Amino acid sequence: MINLISLCQNAEKIGISGHIRPDGDCVGSTMGLWQFLSRRFPEKKVEVRLERPSELYDFVPGVSKIVENEDDVVYDVYFVVDSVPERTGMAEKYYNAAKIKVNIDHHITNEGAGDMCYIDAGASSASELVYDLIKEADPEGEYMDESLAKTLYLGIIQDCGVFGYSNTSSKTMRIAADLISYGFDFPKLIDETFYEKTFLQNKVLGEALQKSVLCLSGQFIYSILTREDIDRLGAGEHDFEGIVNQLRYTKGVKAAAFLHEIPEGGYKVSLRSGGAVDVAKAAQAFGGGGHVRAAGCTLKGTPGQIVERLTAQISEQL
Ligand code: 5GP
Ligand code: MN
Predict the structure, then answer these.
(1) Cα 169 to Cα 30, 152, 271, distances in angstroms
(2) Which of 17, 22, 170, 189 has an alpha carbon within 20 to 30 A of 308's alpha carbon?
């Protein structure tokens, strides 16, 4: 395992980034690592480079300090967390320029990159892996406190569906047990970040369910929101989380896809399965990746063309 102390003690500038469209685990793992390193090494420059996360995560310490502007910093150590370096958007160039490149991830499609990596596809989340690294670096928990515990717990619950998905292990539960002992209000955190939706998000979910199409003898469900739909609803990029999971909970369905047209052009595709279909494999066929039961990719073309390609990939596995 990577030792954060020996890795970082001689560094002056440390950078951290995660994937584009950061989700809860991406925020939990990058900000958790940032909180630990900036507290452990107050004399060093520790920076997170990430796309602006959803406002839902504004309470996480450090989010307001995320560096968004571009400059020419060369970091001594650079961490890519919860992602492959290619999926970090603008941050990739800092990773490429860094003296020591580190990759921490739990995606099965990540083969490991950089000078050092800690990749475990069996982990519930990247936040679980960051917890491991912090525990190794700080066994007495000198630098662990309520807000760091809450940040890591946030990342874990977001990626394991509040301990409901199959990526939850007994180790995940033991880590969660340790984290809640720091005393933050975990039921409130779960409600506010996992279950609660804005009125608009519920409307968008309703629209996506209305437009869903069942095919492959009821085993594959998909729904598409075009730019026109999105603009009519007044939705933004943070209003789509959870839709694909709801589609997957349709009786008889083995795989679900939710597509939404993105501002850069093309469609972001989110895939889910109950385990019978390996959606990571399907996503990988289109240059994406993820996990067996949750994966994604970005595709160009008309909705009709994209659905045809996706359906062909899914049907191969049924
Ligand atoms: P979501 O559908 O929630 O965006 O993503 C599901 C899972 O697949 C997440 O673990 C996410 O990190 C991963 N994923 C989503 N889109 C992509 C992609 O374009 N490339 C890769 N490598 N992974 C993705
Ligand atoms: Mn993750």
Answers:
(1) 22, 16, 22
(2) 22
Predicted confidence (pLDDT) per residue in 134-173, tens digit: 999 999 999 999 999 999 999 999 999 999 999 999 999 9
Among 20, 21, 23, which residue has the most ligand 1 atoms within 8 Å of its CB, making it the best to mutate?
Answer: 23
Residue 93: is it exposed, middle or buried by C-beta count within 10 angstroms (0-12/13-18/19+)?
A: middle
Phi-psi region of 275 (alpha: psi -120 to 50; beta: other; left: phi over 0): left
pLDDT at 113: 86
Report residue 156 CA to chain centroid gap.
10
Pocket test for ligand 1, best of 83, 109, 297 (most atoms within 8 A of CB): 297
Length of the chain: 318
Element (H, E) at 271: strand 267-273
The pair of structure tokens assigned to 18 is 């995660």
CA gap 221, 39 in Å, rounded: 46
Cα 64 from Cα 52, distance rounded (Å) = 9
Q: Which two tokens stand for residue 234?
A: 């007044």
- Looking at the CA of residue 271, tell me the nearest atom of ligand 1: 2
> Which structural domains are found in the chain, ordered by start?
4-194 (3.90.1640.10), 199-317 (3.10.310.30)
Q: Give the model confidence (pLDDT) of 286-317 as tens digits.
A: 999 999 999 999 999 999 999 999 999 999 99
CA angle 135, 141, 142 (to 5 degrees): 130
Q: Is the distance from CB of 69 to CB of 85 less than 8 angstroms?
A: no
| Cβ–Cβ under 8 Å, residues 181 and 146 | no
